[in-house]
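Justification of computing resources. Each target in the renewal requires a structure prediction run like the one illustrated here; the chain below, 107 residues long, is used simply to show the kind of job we budget for.
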Amino acid sequence: MTVIDTAPLAVADPSKPTTVHLSGEIDIFTSAALRRRLLSTLNYSTSLLIIDLSQVSFCDAGGLAVLVGIQRRARPLGITLALSGPRPFMSRLLNLTGLGRGLPMVA
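Resulting structure tokens:
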């Protein structure tokens, strides 16, 4: 799993969403690192944090738990977490688990 941020920490533009691009697999081996990275992203995120899933090739229950956990941490900070570009398998996974209703999608 690779995380690529679109804006360095010091230059986040508050008028634009913070976007994090993920690639590869989100599983038991990568979930902890992803959780740490996204938690640190909340410290400089704008009011909208978009997680781009278009390059994610696999996601297990641990990966879904990371997304839910980050959403729960973001809300009290006034940050909305949204997902972008999930591949068909990921869309099905989100819908089957009911997380598609709780995690908003953006184009």
